[in-house]
Amino acid sequence: MNDIILSCRELTKSYGSIPALNGLGFDIYRGRILGLLGPNGSGKTTLIKIAAGLLHQTSGQLLIGGMPVGKNTKRIVSYLPDRDHLPYRMRIREMLKLYSDFFDDFDNARAVDMLSRLGIDFSQKFSTMSKGTREKVQLSFAMSRQAELYLLDEPIAAVDPAARDYILRTVLQNYKEGSAVIISTHLIADVEPILDDVMMLQNGTLRLYGPAEQIRRDTGKSIDMLFREVYRC
Question: Is the pLDDT of residue 42 over 70?
């Protein structure tokens, strides 16, 4: 099996004359959890949306599992956007059936277990839940797929601090062996303990990419401290 799950070469995305991504080139490997870091406007969400098939690059190449982004890659990618995306009027038990019908790789038993541990009422409508609870539900569904690549855009932004450890343990313990996880976040201190690799973007360009432990060793700083230093206003 090729260890590379996602590969970029000269990846560029522009909105008119404004570049959101500018000639990115890197490889992301299976079995790794990567923190995708950068300030607002650095290109994080644009990169994730291209990988998820929601945007198309202006030029360059992005491959997932050796394939151009399309219907074949969507079968192996589990995407969690940074905003609510599940049907508001549906009850949780109806969502379980929807996911079971729609995704061949959906593990219904795993989803039921995660939702139960979070104290979710399966008869409750999504629209009646708090923002933090909706985020927990959506992450549970995303992590219940047996995907090869998980794209998580700000997965703990609306979750209270007491629940963040559980959410991060959920990510750590439930992604498929041999797959990879990309977590885009501003809450670096919270996610740092589970990161294998770190990628920092700035103005659509690659500022830093490498193993988290090596970066800490080389700089003598935590990833959170380094981020604050690199992007100091």
Answer: yes
Indicate the DSSP class of residue 63: E
Distance, CA of 196 to CA of 60 (rounded, Å): 27
- Is the pLDDT score of 173 beyond 90? no
CA distance 172 to 166: 10
pLDDT at 233: 60
Q: Any idea which residue has 């498929």 for tokens?
A: 176
Considering only CA atoms, which of 62, 116, 44, 123 is closest in space to residue 90?
123
Q: State the residue range of the domain holding 77.
A: 4-230
Q: How many domains does the chain have?
A: 1
- Residue 70 tokens read as 């399309």
User: Domain containing 189 — which CATH number?
Assistant: 3.40.50.300
Distance CA 98, CA 175 (A): 21
Residue 132 pLDDT = 82
Flag whether pLDDT at 5 surpasses 60: yes
Residue type, 123: S
pTM of structure: 0.92
User: Residue 10: which region, alpha, beta or left (left: phi > 0; alpha: psi -120 to 50)?
Assistant: left
